[in-house]
Write a structure and sequence with these properties.
Structural class: mainly alpha
Helix content: 55-70%
Largest sheet: 5 strands, mixed
Distance between the termini: 105 Å
Strand order of the largest sheet: 2-1-3-5-4
GO molecular function: pentosyltransferase activity
Number of helices: 25
Pfam families: PMT_2
Subcellular location: Cell membrane
GO cellular component, one term: plasma membrane
Organism: Thermanaerothrix daxensis
Amino acid sequence: MNDLPLVKSMSGITMRHKNSFWITFWVSLFLLIGLGIRLYDLTDLPLDFHATRQLFSALKARGLYAAFATNMPEWQRQIAIRQWREIGIIEPPIMEFLVAQTYRFTGLQLWVARIYSSLFWVLGGLPVFWLGRRLGRNWVIGLIALGVYLSVPYGGIASRSFQPDPLMVSLMVWAWWGAYTWYESPTFQRAVVAGLLAGLAILVKNLVVFLVLPPLLLLLFERYHLQIWRQPQAWVILILSVLPTGVYTIYGVWISGFLKSQFSGRFFPQLWIDPVFYIRWLGQIEHVVGSRYLFALGLAGIFLSASPTHRRWLLILWLGYFALGFAFSYHYMTHDYYHLPLIPLMALSISPVVDTVYQRLRELTFSKFATAVLIGVLVILFANNLWDIRVTLKRNDYRHEASFWATLGEKLANGSVMALTHDYGYRLAYWGWKDAGIWPTQGDLFLRQLSGGSPEDILHEFQAHIEGFDYFLITLMGEYENQPVLKQTLEQHYTLLDQGDGYLIFDLRHPKGTP
């Protein structure tokens, strides 16, 4: 009888070790599979997802590399450096710097960026699992949150793109984790970690401040109430959260000036009263998370959370997401990757919903059966989503694009070019080594008017825009057909110098008559 407590104790230790093994096994398996699917079709060109934004970073990284490269032809090195310096700076080029440094060992291989983005995103799964486990009160529910985070089809494609957003989202989730671990056990060391993680997330892309600072402030008030301003740890967290971006912004706006132009053309409150804005917003949500019903479940998770702190924390995260949408209304309508933070937010928000289902299953059956059901459903959904990601990546092959744009660059090498072309000329610049003046698309004209610019039709100022250019390149055939004044002017007054599958080149040097 005296041995019974010891037996019970040893049994408890054995069960904990067994659970730890399975937790480690499943989390590691999910992370490895999540990384593996993102590295599928690794060497395809970065044109599968918002090519303009990816090539923006690709040109920067190539220029940063060219600044110290010794194995590039001098003419290419000079062009790469010039293109890098002419591209505007928005966020600190952290991703571009990492990729440029890696080019020292790999050469100019664009897939390097894909590895970094994928790795950063997948590592963000660790805090997603930890937080989901807290919100769902069970490690299996944490695993479900991790599975959602890693396998949402849109996220599988977006999270491997060459832009700061995958790193930003990962650091955002780590910042949530840092703040919550500090809240549970406030120490000075954890305060430093929480502040640094929040500061790094905001530095990578400052718009994430809407989703980092409010939940952080909430947990500070939950811990200290109205005494927050008297607490050294609170000051450490807040200062470290805003200091990196504050220094960067002060330097960029008031010292070097490169950030001055980046604060215009972003805030459009007039869209708030336009029903189209909300319809498109809902469409973007459905596109990113896969279903508006999953979105509704995420909102329901706010009210199903077992803990009042959890409810308030989820609520403030959702309010941050909506505040971001109103602050960047035009981009929320047109740039689906602005909704990327919605994926981890959704993964965590459905955890209380799954917890409710799990508890009901336990009442009807028993714990092991309920756990087996949840894991079974998760594995099926996880595998199905991963297959969708694989099919999407397999469906398109962009490798031929490099030779197409290289050929166009050779054709236009001896003259200056005005172009109605893909991605603001970035494809021509990257693979064709040729810069071009950019003729605006209809979307550009709409944004210009939305920003308060002149509504005067730019097509009637054709002569002023083409002055000094030798050629007019057309690769956006749909846009060309939808701009009849431009089409009529070029075809009636200028010689078609060359044409092929996907391009037209007009000679601007010798007009046939006055347009």
